[in-house]
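Re-running Putative drug resistance transporter to confirm reproducibility after the cluster update. Everything else is unchanged from the original entry.
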Amino acid sequence: MIRTTPPWTPLAVASAGQFMLVLDVSVVNVALPDIQSGLAMADGTVQWVVTGYALTFAGGLLVGGRLADLWGVRRVFIAGLLLFTAASMVGGLADSAAILIAARAVQGMGAAIASPATLTAITTTYPEGSLRTRAIAVWTAVSLVGGGAGTIVGGLLTDAVSWRAVLLINLPCGAAVIVAARALPSGHRHAPARPDAAGAVLITATLLVLTYAVSSASAASASAVSAVVAAVVLLGVTILYQRASPSPLLPRHLWHNASLVRGNLLVLAVGACFQAPIWLFLTYVMQGSLGLSPAQAGLGFVPLTVVTALVGVWAAPALLRHLAPFTVIGAGAAITAAGLFWPACASPTGFVASILGPSVIIGIGGGLLNTPLSIVATSGVDESDAGAASGLLNTAKQLGGALGLAALTPLTHGYNEFGPAFAALGGVMIAVALTATAIRMKGVDSHARSR
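Result of re-run:
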């Protein structure tokens, strides 16, 4: 049962776990030049240090969410963290590109198992309304700040110790969160069903081939065409299999939840900006165009991180008491677009003009739109399906990031020119703003307003 007066301890533990898992999406970004040099990685290979994690993270989130429903939040959370922490050790000690990328992929699997449990713990502990809005605002802000904090931590550790430290730091941190996980609700089911393992394999394979197809589409080669065809076929097989499965990863009745479907489609688009591309591209602008060190580049993300967190935790919940979620989403997306068009239209000239100004605007927009997105994508869901809904939301985020990075990387011309990529991201956010406005004008989201 949902507790009406819950303590804030489960929120603190869930947020700490989510912070660490999301941090690892971007913690290697600032270290990529050192990793590429140290392991003699080719330009086309280095992006897979980021994409490998994001891809398996996205591919396993649906099964991770369903496991939390079937086997219990606490048990699944701890199991995922154990796998994540062990893979971090292997990656930190890797002596080749292949081992590092493989370790990052296993890290993503562990994160996929643990991450949905963090949001499930929140949605099954705090009732819908202002209390859950504040809890989700904190969880969402932590998820966003994790990306910025990853670049800061990664930069400092790379400069002070080595790129290996950005992965090995997960050993003590993971152990601490695992011990604290006793505060999470068990969520135990007395008659657990068998998860759809074959469905999880199909979904992971589909995401992998789909991302490769997007990243290679610009080449118009035979392999690129084959990848596109394979992705379409796998996607069709996956959909048919899930429709016929007696225990699908995402219960069929959830597709009738209009708020959940609309919310997750927008989460997918927003993830293409906030989950990976913006952090990676700004990293290369600071280190390449502006000549900053890894530590300086990491600290350069402090304004974006702080503004996003403050707006997400304080301003977004306050606005949601008076405005419908899609109204706030539309405004936040429009502000984010303005911040992204700034670096798209101006050549890098200095930190204030090239990084600080856009970061403040992007942080305001991102802080506003991501909290209501999480709310609409999880509203109206029964407690027994909370894990599946959490898995779907996180899948949309991570898939958006992986596809966004794959699609936009060719626009950077070998990570040397970022104006077109930022312009494309701005265009995506304009589309999100227009879509949210159209939904709001139909008056379909007033029920999700925080009270």
